[in-house]
Amino acid sequence: MFHLVILSLVFGPLLVMGRIIHDIEIIPSGNQNFRPGSPDGKNDCDLLCPTTEDFHCGTDSVTYKNPCELLNANCKNFDIKLAYRGPCDSTKPIPPTSCPKTWSCLGWYQPVCGTNDKTYDNNCYLVIANCRDTSIGYKSAGPCKKNDTTPCKTYCNHLPSQPICGSDLRVHRNQCELKNAKCDNPNLIQAKCPAPVVVECAGVCPMDYQPMCGSDGKSYINKCHMDLTTCKTPSITLAYEGPCKTPVIDGCTACTGNEHEDFVCGSDAVSYRSACAFNYALCKQKCPATLKLEHTGHCTCDESCHFASYDPICGSDGVTYETACEFRVASCKTPEIKVQGTGQCS
Description:
Blueprint: E1 14-16, E2 19-21, E3 56-58, E4 63-64, H1 67-76, E5 82-85, E6 112-114, E7 119-120, H2 123-132, E8 138-141, E9 164-166, E10 171-172, H3 175-184, E11 190-191, E12 212-214, E13 219-220, H4 223-232, E14 238-241, E15 248-249, E16 252-253, E17 264-266, E18 271-272, H5 275-284, E19 293-296, E20 313-315, E21 320-321, H6 324-333, E22 339-342
């Protein structure tokens, strides 16, 4: 398919793809370094011209059969312009060229970008601009790209801690953070670190959920939170991507440590940090299970047992406690006392 954008700069009526382009005074003058471009890389200067004879003399002293032929020559070499209408005559001097007063461009949209960073609807309009200002040339096919508005600073919290010092006498957590600091201080450069190096751990992380499992068995919301923990406690590292899997120990489901802290008090006078921790302890007991859930919250040593029902428990101290409540009070005051069994001590 021929690119006919520039083809509309013609002299006299010319039928182009079924449209008549009317008179225009001359082919534009231009900069020899300027060449109109084509988005698909094809040559815009290869117009299939009609056979109509309408001779025009070019500034190269060549007689062109019609304005279309002259336009092709002009497109390939901007030094070639219209000298005058009619065949070349050696007795006529070649007049200086100038930009035409009237123009006619086809209206389709096939944008090109000029060297002035202005987008033109098609090559024809860019040729006009070039004629009026020869410093304007072809830069690229398509609309001009907008100025880069990418923020100078980038997200660094997900990167590992690799301390690096700057000329601002600060220790930056890694090269990324040093580069961010350079946005505020363009003269900042890398410098020798003083001893010892103290690294400030990042304190703010995004809340997007991309869980990571740490070597401490805890699930972290995302890698940033994982790295923040590693920065503060280097012994805790990434175990694997994804939430921590619930461990099963001796047939009992253990807790990951991520459960909401909501203490409950067991009949063994132990305050469990969550229902999960209580259930794990219950599972670990040998049958028959003697552990019962007494109430929510921490176990207290001043618990009132006046209304507790008779339910004897034998303590490891050899004492029979008439109720679980009495056992909890005793165990709270003396943690060494454990449940020996249900019922009276024998």
